[in-house]
Amino acid sequence: MADLNDRPPDNRIAPPPPPRRAVSRPDLVARIERALDGGLVLLSAPAGFGKTSILAEWAARTDRPVAWLAIGPRDHDPMQFAAHLAAALRPLAPSAVDALAPLIAPGRGPAEGQGTAGVEAAIRALAGALYGAEPSSVLVMDDVHELADPAHWTVVEAFLAERPPSIALILASRSDPPLPLARWRLAGALAEFREADLRLDRDALMAVVAHVAGVSLTGAQAAVLEARTEGWAAGVQAAALALQDRQDVAAAVARFAGDHRFILDYLDEEVIDRQPPAVLSFLLDVAILDRLSPALCDAVRGTSSGDSAAWLDRLTHQGLFLQPLDVVGETYRFHRLFADRLRHRLERTAPDRAVALHRRAAAWFAANDDLDDAIAHALQGDTALAADLIGQAAPGRLAGRQAATVLGWLRALPEQALRADPRLMVAMAWALFAAESRGKAEPWLSDAEAVLAAPDRAAIDASPAARAEALGAAAALRAQMASWDGDVDEALRHSAVALDVLGPGSIWRANVALAVGAAHHLRGDVTAAIETFRSAVVDADTANRAEAAILARAMLAESLFLAGRLTEAAAVAEQALAQAEPIGGIDWPATARAGVVLGHIHLERNDLGAAAAAAERTIAAGRRASTRVLTFTGLLLRADVRVAAGDHAGAIEAVDEAAAVANEPALLADLAQFRAEIELDAGRPSAAVALERSRAAAARDPATPPPSVSAAMLSANVLLLQGRPADAEALIAPRVAECHTSGNGLAATRLRVLLALIRATRGRQDSARVLLAAALDDAEREGYVRSFAIGGPAMQALLRHVAADGGPHAATAQRILGALASDPPGASTRPEPPRARTGTEFGLSEREREVLGLVSEGLTNQEIADRLVISIATVKRHLTNIYGKLGADGRTRAVAFARARGMIG
């Protein structure tokens, strides 16, 4: 879906014309039109009350721009729902929605535990796109009862919250949706139309009978039908059809009962059974179709006569519950109750005929590149064809985060068919890994690998390309699992297998490259990680996989940062953010990861305000997406910023919050070291000393791995504190060369600074200056500052000596000294008690403060853009920055936060 404009027309996203034989209901239409001024309208009534017909009449009469989305079974998959919603909204804001195409395109690779976070981001972005639509526009969402998963309603509520207040929404459903209706009702923000509002009154009932049956009822006869149907439109139409060509109208009316179950039986006996054989045969042949077109009906009926168009037109004029979905008579649908009765009749009387009809439908849809409908029909009529079609479609759907769709297909196949094709078994493993859990995926992956390795592979080898794709996909999944386990050797081994068999255009190559890069990262080989992540960027861009490309750029930026290449890292991270912004991906975990890298770059360069804002944006994004690792990372960045500002109590508070989020022993161990570092920086070394004692005891075990660079630096600082500089040097000196070999340039610089301090302590001033000069070379090139905060006053004394000697590094040393002196000890980055503020304390720019003030006045994005003479995209960028800096998740909380602190009136 690279371009929504290239998609074929879909009558699910266009208002249907009013039924030809429907009775106009101008009073009800006028009430709906007036109710739209409140912004939200709900039509809630059981099937057959004419909700769609009434809304079709309203859409034909209104002057408002209308977007229409008829929810169907495909929308059970969250990403399909987002795609259909985007297509429906496109007429209201074409350029804005087109810009979001990559967000919902098949190109966002599967990842375990992703939940609905990506879909919610897509829905929020689509809602934001409506700020470019005409203020009086309306979105109609019909049949929303099809959204059965509670997770769908989370994203629907997100859409409602983010859409412009001037854009109205109509929901039509057979039952009340799980939304906060009571709250909206009390706030006067909801208009409701229920059974009592939709029922046909006596005059309308008489008009329907006159239209359909050509019969004029007496008042008494109409009263009987009104009492027995209770104004149920489907029941009235069924009665009208039954009255066609009846001589004794009074007797027919007297036989009619109003119970809905009875009416369904009556529909069988008095409408379907009374059709001529040719009509009934046509109805049963096409009843399996959700949407009917002449060409499709001809194909399903197996006829070359081309008479389906005439049949559809004839049945529409007869009022046989057939409704055109466009004005030119190209697409139709049956009323669902009528279709259900026809399908029940077909399955009961001619099951073999039903199978043949589904098989023909599947073939027609497959030939017309509609794999979703082709698979749906093949599952009813041709298992072998269904398995083959699913094998073709599954990789693309998985790459598009449509794991729910793939799981539904695969679980509908017989077990024997599923296990006969390793492509399907691998697809099942990937789908389970993406949508549910690794534990469920593992057995399927193991079974698939066993089949692929079996000596008798005749069926598999008959299609070498399919076998290669299955082998590559299985190896790609193994590589990703191993990478997440920290098993570098296994990750690299499986990645090599995958890359050996996967072609250049395979959707799995980006996944493999990301897994390889993560493995190199875990091994500490920063140079190899950089090259691999560069490859991942190319693979993801080539495959048009937006989120994979953003994640690859974020991980590349992270590796470049570790390499000490801060300028290049910042540029790559900014590219990730720029790629995410126009497609609504600012809150994606992958994007937030790029923001964390920028935060650490700001921190290293001593821009504490920007670093603090990045930390708060990351924490907010992690909490919105329910991503523990992201929230944890943001909290650690917050703690780092507070240490740099001298707020050690605030840093400990952030570490405690991170501990509450962490759920892995390794993360908790890292926090123990971090806490010890904070205490040592604050002049309270007891925690660091205690930690080092426990480490020293563990180090006596030969199986204990060498300490990390950060652990070694903490140990060296403790040794210095204990008056053991020689031991500190012995611990640190070998690590400098190791970091150079692995490409970990930032760590190498920090180790040089610490080693210079150690050698100065030991009286080796010349060696200390050489080491410091090398570190200052890096600082001059990349803007380092915080790396020289190690050692406090002792390091500042060394820097002052360099600054005073007038040598080549004097200016750099003076810059660092000035930057470090600008942060008074004890300064806090946390909010102070409420007082009048300008917002600068939170890193708000002058323009951001101006935008926040206009938001507090209730202006829309478009109105703000007009007032400030800037684009809507710029307004949205300012709002994103404001939310991150204030730790807010939307306009309301940002304004409340600012008012509570006196930043705005």
Give your account of this protein's structure.
The protein has 905 residues and is mainly alpha-helical. The strands form 2 sheets. It has a 5-stranded parallel beta sheet with strand order 2-3-4-1-5, sandwiched between helices. Helix 1 packs across helix 2, helix 24 (422-435) runs antiparallel to helix 25 (438-453) and helix 34 (608-624) crosses helix 47 (872-886). The longest helix has 22 residues, at 464-485. The protein is elongated, with a radius of gyration of 34 Å.
Itemize the secondary structure elements and their pairings.
Blueprint: H1 26-35, E1 40-44, H2 51-61, E2 66-70, H3 78-89, H4 94-99, H5 101-104, H6 117-129, E3 138-142, H7 150-162, E4 168-173, H8 181-186, E5 191-193, H9 195-198, H10 202-213, H11 219-229, H12 233-243, H13 249-255, H14 260-272, H15 277-286, H16 294-301, H17 308-318, E6 322-324, E7 332-334, H18 336-349, H19 351-367, H20 371-381, H21 383-399, H22 403-412, H23 415-419, H24 422-435, H25 438-453, H26 458-461, H27 464-485, H28 488-501, H29 509-523, H30 526-542, H31 546-562, H32 566-580, H33 589-604, H34 608-624, H35 628-644, H36 648-661, H37 665-681, H38 686-699, H39 709-721, H40 725-742, H41 745-761, H42 765-782, H43 793-804, H44 810-821, H45 846-856, H46 861-868, H47 872-886, H48 891-900
Parallel strand pairs: 1-4, 1-5, 2-3, 3-4
Antiparallel strand pairs: 6-7
Helix pairs in contact: 1-2, 3-6, 6-7, 10-11, 10-12, 12-14, 14-18, 16-17, 16-19, 18-19, 19-20, 20-21, 21-22, 21-24, 22-24, 24-25, 24-27, 25-27, 27-28, 27-29, 28-29, 29-30, 29-31, 30-31, 31-32, 31-33, 32-33, 33-34, 33-35, 34-35, 34-47, 35-36, 36-37, 37-38, 39-40, 39-41, 40-41, 41-42, 43-44, 45-47, ...
